[in-house]
Write a structure and sequence with these properties.
The protein has ten helices and 19 strands. The radius of gyration is 20 Å and the shape is globular. The protein is α/β, with parallel strands linked by helices. Strand 1 and strand 2 form a beta hairpin. It has two domains: 144 residues, Carbamoyl-phosphate synthase small subunit, N-terminal domain (Glucose Oxidase, domain 1), CATH 3.50.30.20; 206 residues, Rossmann fold, CATH 3.40.50.880. It has a ten-stranded mixed sheet, with helices on both faces. It has a seven-stranded mixed β-barrel with strand order 1-2-8-6-4-3-9. Helix 8 crosses helix 9. It binds glutamine (GLN). The site of glutamine has 11 residues, from strand 16. Glutamine (GLN) binds next to strand 16. This is Carbamoyl phosphate synthase small chain. Its EC number is 6.3.5.5. Pathway: Amino-acid biosynthesis; L-arginine biosynthesis; carbamoyl phosphate from bicarbonate: step 1/1; Pyrimidine metabolism; UMP biosynthesis via de novo pathway; (S)-dihydroorotate from bicarbonate: step 1/3. Composed of two chains; the small (or glutamine) chain promotes the hydrolysis of glutamine to ammonia, which is used by the large (or ammonia) chain to synthesize carbamoyl phosphate. Tetramer of heterodimers (alpha,beta)4. Keywords: Amino-acid biosynthesis, Arginine biosynthesis, ATP-binding, Glutamine amidotransferase, Ligase, Nucleotide-binding, Pyrimidine biosynthesis.
């Protein structure tokens, strides 16, 4: 069935609908990963976004039971050049079409995804709608321009209640802003005794759990939409070692007095080069973000830039100069993508060990 993608600037792409036949609007973003579509579809950070994959054939290894990054996908639509109806892989359980249909996510195939990507790169991130051919593009484009996006994404994807993921190692409180399961997997692999808590848990509630470390997860939307998280971070910073990823990194930066801004079209893919400022070592990283910490804003804070993106020099990592706390904009848990940055989880464990040994609240050479 022919369907269309209408962008807020009036551009129309006509393709073949697959997955759900629902009409859906969202922010249209592109991901350059050659594989990993199942992890992308189930990454809660894509909440309210329509994702287009730049790799031309998507769905060829199907959908399996192991690679989900969350149980319920939050993405609003999925756009590909060509989708594969008959996947071939020993792990595959169903096709991309069946998965999207079951989850109520509309797909659109057969459009020129290179043209769409270039449009987003030129104009910047835009709102768009996947709908039937009966919709009038001009009217839809005007409606999109007049619509403000929701600001409550984190509350929609975070856990409602705390839950444990027991282990015999360090006690880690994971604050769930829209957590990818990969983060939990990495902590569990290192025997951490994890308690996952909702995004709006207070500092007092967290301190009462007496953790050895706090993990701030990835999550959707604008970090400025979650002011309660800044309150919480303020209350635990310097008391408990802290590690943040993506939205967690942005929230940490805001709390410490730095600022964030929306990027023109963001970083989404599995091959983003990031340099460690101190060692000059380069890692190829998995990324998915549309906001970034503003460089000038870091100057008069107690933060130090630890990593930069080699594609555009944007900030990719920060650490606190007085307390045991560091954060990264990219995804050390990968899923999907390369595992070059996996050792950052070791760094978190080491930081908790140091804190235990030191038995004091600040660190000398952080
Ligand atoms: N993956 C993330 O945590 C994304 C963070 C934030 N929502 C952004 O788009 O920049």
């Amino acid at each position: 069935m022919k369907r269309q993608l209408i962008l807020e600037d009036g551009t129309v792409f006509i393709g073949e609908g697959f997955g759900s036949t629902k009409e859906m609007m969202g922010e249209v973003v592109f991901n350059t990963g050659m594989t990993g579509y199942q992890e992308v579809l189930s990454d809660p950070s894509y909440c309210d976004q329509i994702v287009t994959m730049t790799y031309p054939l998507i769905g060829n290894y199907g959908i399996n039971r192991d690679d989900f990054e969350s149980i319920t996908p939050a993405v609003k639509g999925f756009i590909v050049k060509e989708t594969c109806d008959f996947p071939s892989n020993f792990r595959s359980e169903y096709s991309l079409h069946t998965f999207l249909e079951e989850k109520g996510i509309p797909g659109l195939s057969g459009i020129d995804t290179r043209k769409l990507t270039r449009r987003i790169r030129t104009v910047g991130a835009m709102k768009g709608k996947i709908c039937g051919m009966d919709e009038n593009p001009e009217e839809v484009a005007a409606a999109l321009r007049g619509t403000d996006f929701a600001t409550d994404q984190v509350s929609r994807v975070s856990t409602m209640k705390p839950y444990p993921s027991p282990g015999r190692g360090f006690k880690v409180v994971v604050v769930d802003f829209g957590m990818k399961h990969g983060i939990l997997r990495e902590l569990t692999e290192r025997h951490c005794d994890v308690i996952v808590v909702p995004y709006n848990t207070t500092a007092e509630e967290i301190l009462r759990l007496n953790p050895d470390g706090i993990m701030l997860t990835n999550g959707p939307g604008d970090p400025k939409d979650v002011p309660e998280a800044q309150e919480m971070i303020k209350g635990v910073l310097g008391k408990i070692p802290l590690f943040g990823i993506c939205l967690g990194h942005q929230l940490f930066a805001l709390t410490c007095g730095a600022d964030t801004e929306k990027m023109k079209f963001g970083h989404r893919g599995a091959n983003h080069p990031v340099q460690n400022v101190e060692t000059k070592q380069v890692m190829i990283t998995s990324q998915n973000h549309g906001y970034a910490v503003r460089e000038e804003s870091v100057e008069n804070t107690d933060l130090e830039i630890t990593h930069i993106a080699l594609n555009d020099d944007s900030i990719e990592g920060l650490k606190h100069t007085k307390y045991r706390a560091f954060t990264v904009q990219f995804h050390p848990e990968a899923s999907p993508g390369p595992e070059d940055a996996n050792s950052l989880f070791e760094q978190f464990i080491t930081m908790m060990e140091e804190e235990k040994k030191a038995g004091n609240l600040t660190c000398q050479n952080a």
